[in-house]
Structures are given as structure tokens and as C-alpha cells.
Amino acid sequence: MRLSTIALTLFAVGVSASMATEDLSPRSSAVASRDFERKIQARDPKKHHHKQRGDMLLTDAKFTWYGGGQLDAPACGGPTPNRNDRVVAVPTSSPAKCGDEVHLHHGGKMVKAKVVDYCSGCSDHQFDLTQGTFEALAALEVGELSGAHVRIIPQ
Predict the structure, then answer these.
(1) Statement to judge: residues 147 and 72 lie in one domain
(2) How far apart are CA 103 and CA 114, in angstroms?
(3) Model pTM score
(4) In terms of domains, do 69 and 121 share one?
(5) Residue 75: exposure state from Cβ atoms within 10 A (0-12, 13-18, ≥19)
(6) Is 35 helix (H, G, I), strand (E, B) or coil?
(7) What is the domain range of residue 56?
(8) Number of domains in the chain
(9) Same domain as 15, residue 57
(10) What is the pLDDT of residues 89-101, one digit of tens each?
(11) Which segment of the chain is annotated as a signal peptide (predicted)?
């Protein structure tokens, strides 16, 4: 009788130990599932917010400004911007297209703008900014900013 009592006791202890390590409540399994999903997303570079949206970073960009009649009839349509609107014109060869948001970085400053026009006379990494957008980065008298960075956020 002693052998069967010992065997039963060991079996009961084993079952209790395995049940203690596994919480079968719906709440704990939902939390575990969410934690698992977060870990998978954190490891998956496709889920990273920069990669997911297809953001692009251009280095060594150049900023110039435009105004007056040059603002009339933007190529992307819509109303004519004014000098203070946060908008830019990009070269037709640019990866930035109509409606894209751009973050313009120079000299430790950053300004957000929207692509509303194309600049036929601009070089590949040149962005033509409205006067107000340019002034958020430097004085108009500077005329041109080189060595800038642009983050393009496609829409």
C-alpha cells in the first residue's frame, strides 16, 4: 500500500506543478497573445513605422526659395499658395511627389511642408521652398542652403 500511496502522491504533485505554471484563464491567454504579437512586430522590420510607410531620406539636398508669380498655378492643382504656406516645389526627378509630406532639416532646425509643385529648373536634390518655409530655416538673404537633409513621407 505504501508504494501506491507514494506513486499517487508523486503524480498529484506533478499535475499540481504543471497546472501552477500554466494559467488557463482567458484574460492571461489574451495578455500573453498580445505580448507575443508585440514581440513579433518589434522584430519585424516591415512593421517599423518608417519602413511601413516607405519613408525616404535624402542627404546633401539643397534648398532655395521662390515666390510671387512663381507660386501661381501649382502643378499638383489646388489653390495658389501664399508666401507663408508650408509648401515646396520639387524636381520632376525627385522621389517626392504631389501631396507627399517632407521634413526639411538644416542647421539643427526642421520644418514640415507639403509638395504642391514641380520645379523644372531644379537639380536632382534641390527643393524650392516658399519664402515662409525658407525663413523657418534661415534668412531669405542667404538665398541657398546646401548640405540639407529631407525626409520624404509618401501619402
Answers:
(1) yes
(2) 9
(3) 0.65
(4) yes
(5) middle
(6) helix
(7) 51-153
(8) 2
(9) no
(10) 999 999 999 999 9
(11) 1-20
